[in-house]
Structure formats: C-alpha cells, structure tokens
Amino acid sequence: xxxxxxxxxxxxxxxxxxxxxxxxxxxxxxxxxxxxxxxxxxxxxxxxxxxxxxxxxxxxxxxxxxxxxxxxxxxxxxxxxxxxxxxxxxxxxxxxxxxxxxxxxxxxxxxxxxxxxxxxxxxxxxxxxxxxxxxxxxxxxxxxxxxxxxxxxxxxxxxxxxxxxxxxxxxxxxxxxxxxxxxxxxxxxxxxxxxxxxxxxxxxxxxxxxxxxxxxxxxxxxxxxxxxxxxxxxxxxxxxxxxxxxxxxxxxxxxxxx
Length: 258
Description:
It is built from 10 helices and 7 strands. It has 258 residues and is an alpha/beta fold.
C-alpha cells in the first residue's frame, strides 16, 4: 500500500517515540510498525525540503537572492552528432538547507524506507543538502501523469497558480524571476503561495505514482476556495483521480482491522 505523508505528519510517523504523550502517539506508532513490516510503502514530497524548508518570513528574501544556475552537460553519442542536456536550477549556496532538526528526521526516514518524490521543474527551487539523497525514480508514465495533474491543478487556480500570478505582476517574461522582484508588501502572500505550490506538487506526485492514500493531520481545515485542498478541489481530485485523504487515526484503524 503506497501512502504519501504530508508535511504535518511525516516526522511523527518516522520517530513516534519523540511524540510520546501526543493524543495520536499510538496511531503514529502503529503506522511506523506497519512500515517496518512492509505493509506500507511510505513516500514524502521533496518540497518538504525545498519550498517548505525556507521559513515563511524568509521566503521573499530567498527569492530576491536566488538567480537560476544554468548547467550544460554534454551527452555522449554513437555518431558524430553533439547533444547537450541543459539543467536550469536554483543557485547553489542560497537555500538555507536542512536544519539539524529536519536532518535528523530525514536520516531516520531514509533508514525507515521512505521514498522521496521529486517533481523536476525548470528553475525550480533546490536544496544543496539534498544532492546526495537517492530520490524515487519515477517512470515516464508516472512523470507524464504527474505533469498532467499539476497543470490541471494550476488551471483550477490552485497549486503554482498563486505564485505565478504574483510573479507575472512584476515580470511578464518570467514569473519565478518576478517573485524575486516583488516588494516587501508581498511577503505574506508569497509565503502562502509557496506553501500552496508545495501542496499542489505533493498531490501531483502522489497521484503520479498511483498512491493509495495521502495521509495528513489537518484534512485541509481552513483551506481557501483556491487551495488544492479546498472541498471542491478534493471532490474533483477524488472523482478524476481517486485521490483519497486519510488521517493518522483513520489509517491506524484501517491497518488494525485489515
């Protein structure tokens, strides 16, 4: 059973002993045990370590500093032609990286068998401390489905839509560059937009790998109408892709009785 764990629950699942006394402690422990028994194949989106790893108050400052790095990698061919792989990514050294707290949980997650899902984007934000992490290798079909989902989410004015809307306001040629040109008055909006970007990508990669459940601790309480987790969008995702959210309590109960 493939389960993607949201940013608000993965640490509790990885190290339940650190949450002793939490009302959901027994649920976290049960899920952790079932991962060890291989009943669950656990996943987490890489956006936890890229977009969401940047403190909300620091997100605009990061974008103002970030300048895309363009890397040209020659590809060997069997004939006389020359091919080049072009990689456009975040400038190294700009991202704050994982703090000790996150690094400790990440190391434990990898030992437990968590798969890190990454959606490659042109100019996407990268964390240099994740360079040596072995990401889940998505197949061509999984990547195609993921791209389809995130594009449809964007068309529903969720996911990356909000970041793109703000960015295009300040640079009509590059919305990502435009985010870095935004004034301080846009700081809170940009922080929320990056969080929604992360949510949209997390949903996209989960659907791309045909995950069974998306486990989250909040069930999108308070999500706005333009959030990927709004009631309307959750209904659409379930109808279109059989996307299902599940709480830790529900997952633990399901595991207990199945």
